[in-house]
Amino acid sequence: MPIITSRLHLRPVIISDGNDLFRIYGDPATNTFNPAGPYPDKDYARDVLARWLKHWEDYSFGNWAISLRDNPEKIIGFGGLSIRNYAHTSINNLGYRFSVDSWGNGLATEFANHAVSYGFSEFSLPDISAVVRANHLASQKVLTNAGLRYIRDIHDVKNAPASMLFTLTHAEWNKKSG
Prior knowledge:
CATH architecture: 3-Layer(aba) Sandwich
Radius of gyration: 15 Å
CATH class: Alpha Beta
Strand order of the largest sheet: 1-2-3-4-5
Order of helices and strands: EEHHEEEHEHEEH
Mean pLDDT: 95
Distance between the termini: 27 Å
CATH superfamily: Gcn5-related N-acetyltransferase (GNAT)
Oligomer: single chain
Largest sheet: 5 strands, antiparallel
Helix content: 25-40%
Shape: globular
Low-confidence stretches: none
Number of strands: 8
Number of domains: 1
C-alpha cells in the first residue's frame, strides 16, 4: 500500500524497479560521496533489489520507490529503513538516494522525516541511524533536520576515511514530537 506525504508518493520496491534503481544508483553524480562508486551494471542493481525485497519479506519494512505525489509513475529516488551492519555494528539504517534532477527541493528532508516517524510509530524501533561521509554536508543537514545527531565516526569502507554515524533514539523522538 502506498504512503503519501505532502509531496511524495512512497511504495515498497517491486521486482520491476531494477532499471530505475540502476538509473539512479548507477549515475556517477549520485555517488559523489560514495567511496564504492556507482552500481556497475543492471545485474548488480537487480541483485540489490532482490536483497531489498527479501528484507521486506523478513521484516515487513524496507526500501520504498519514491516519486512525486502528483506523478507516482516516475521514480525519483529510493530510500527507507533497513537493518544493516557497519563495522560490526548492527543498526536500523535510514538510507536514501534521489535522482539529480530532484535535488535542492527539500524532498530528502521530507522523506527522512517521514521514514523516522514511520520507523518509530509503526515498528517501535529503539533507534534509527544513518551513515554519512564527512564531506557530504547536504546529507548531514537532512539527517539533523530529521532529528538525528552525530554520535561517532565509523569505519565502514575498507581503505577509506571514516564515515559519521548519526542516531536518534525512540525516547529522543518522543520528546521531540510529543
